[in-house]
Amino acid sequence: MSSIRQTSARLADGREIIYFDDAGTQPRERRIDTRELDPRPPTPSMRFDVLSSEWVTVATARQTRVHLPSADLDPLAPQSAGNPSEIPDLYDVAVFENRSPSFGPDSGNETIVASTDEANDARQPPIGAVQLASGRCEVVAFDPDRAGTFGTQSTVRARTIIEAWAERTRALSAVPGVQQVFPFENRGVEIGVTLHHPHGQIYAYPYVPQRIRRIARSIGERGPGLFAEILEHELAGPRLLIEGEHFTAFVPFASRWPVELQVLPHRHIPDLAATTTAERDELASMTLRLARGLDALYDAPLPYIAGWLQAPVAAYRDELRLGWSVTSPRRAADKLKFLAGSEAVMGAWVADISPEASAARLRDAIAKADEQHPVEPLNQQWGAMRDA
To answer: Name one GO molecular function term (predicted).
Structure first.
């Protein structure tokens, strides 16, 4: 089969759009975006919270973003006479700059440093520090069809999505001022999703977020082999979900959410851009099996947040290992976990379900999904496409 193809174009207001065609899709000339659009909003600003050592973006233009549009006005479907959407042409996977971004469109050359050390460190921004929220925010449309989810995609399409995540990680890591690249997917109105069309996003931050800095601090305290030790511990434990040739999926030992899983590679990989073809092939199958298993838990689409934790662009590359993290607040078929006082204010978590019980339920759900909706091997799907 031919390889996944990538082509780039511009939308009517100058934003970039990148098409990723499935292996086997024939080349085509893309339609031009002829809409009349308002100018892009100015780049938001960021304010530094000196108590938490975190940057907070103030992006007021996001107040006007699209909210749960009707099916005939789907902004992620291919454009038609009655639907002036964001994507001018038919596509397999499309990535484009967000119209209402949290970061950008301007990119900056100034490196923003928020120290992981004591609060009086000389590198800490002062009280009242404000910076331009440089960077980039992109939307990743998984499929031209509004019906479906990531878990309902074919293995070939999942492989194209993996390729898009990896290639955009590589490209965004080269943008001046970008310090961290984060591909993620929010799913379900319970999470706050405002578009039902299957899609994800990619944030390119001008700083290293607090979550990554905390992980880096733990590695500094415990040693550079921490991820290898975690993987060894989980491979021998009752929380194992799927063990592949290149990756392993498991429920973390100290899970916070009612449903939580993590995927780690067997070798050290800093980000998706550093994965091999074989590793991306396995990720396509494994992430699909996990997504279908999650939906089999309650025989309904599970609300979740799925994100790729990667090493920063220019720090901790030899210590911080790539990982896929999925969390869901659903603790029963008709119950959600809400973050109240202890978790929301103090950051002191209380788990409602033991990680071992959660892992057992997930293993059963994955087995159920494997039986009812098996994930076809890539080679088998490519062979069928070639024969057709």
So the answer is: zinc ion binding
